[in-house]
TrEMBL record:
Pfam families membership: DUF347
Designated name of the protein: Uncharacterized membrane-anchored protein
Top-rank taxon, per record: Bacteria
Residue intervals passing through the bilayer: 9-29, 35-57, 64-81, 101-119, 139-158, 164-186, 193-214, 226-245
Alphabetical keyword list: Membrane, Transmembrane, Transmembrane helix
Organism: Flavobacterium xanthum
Amino acid sequence: MKHIPKINAFYWALIISANTMGETAGDLISQTFNLGYGGGTVALLILFLIVLSISIYSKNQKPLLYWTVITVASTLGTTISDFLSRTLSVTYLGVTQETGYIYATVLLVFALAFTFGIWKWYSKTDTIEGGLSKRTEFLYWLAILTSSTLGTAFGDLLAHDTPLGFAGGTLLLVGLLMVVVLLVFFTTVARELLYWLAIILTHPIGATMGDYLTKPEGMNLGNIKASLVLVFVFIVVIATGKLVLKKQPA
């Protein structure tokens, strides 16, 4: 049985950093490198399957490998979301239009619910707290990928299709995440449920923060500069976490 890294403040800081980096890296691959949403998705899917296979068949859960899969999943989720919302089209009442953020978000909500349903049908005992078998580890990563894709679509929905914009969307999502944090400390709600609620919320936070860094409506750093900045932030968070852990008494 494998266990995910210890869930603490540094874990969530890395999750948000990885999600934000995944948003900018996804745009970098599909837009700046001109692979397109479809081409970028195919390339990243191959990479995701490679690192996922290494993770599943490794004997122990190595932190570096875990965060590599998280980052690749977040990047892949960005390109999948963009492919669903901006490339695919639907026909309604004889009118063909892009799928859009709303359709993509609804579709991904059902996909995530289906993934959790399969997980619970297959095993009611394998959890993030109790440990994951190879099959449930695959379902865990599938849920991470789906929630990443959902988060990107929902973040784009808030940023582009509502008056909130990038900054307002981020503030709303951070507020919702704070509600989850309060539930952790002041209620007896199942920690497994709260974990996944937090995971789902951190993805759109990363998406809107990433867009705020790269888009003209935000800081307009562009995909390359923003990605480099976020890689630096990611490394700083990791280094800080290790430094704090070393100073803690055994």
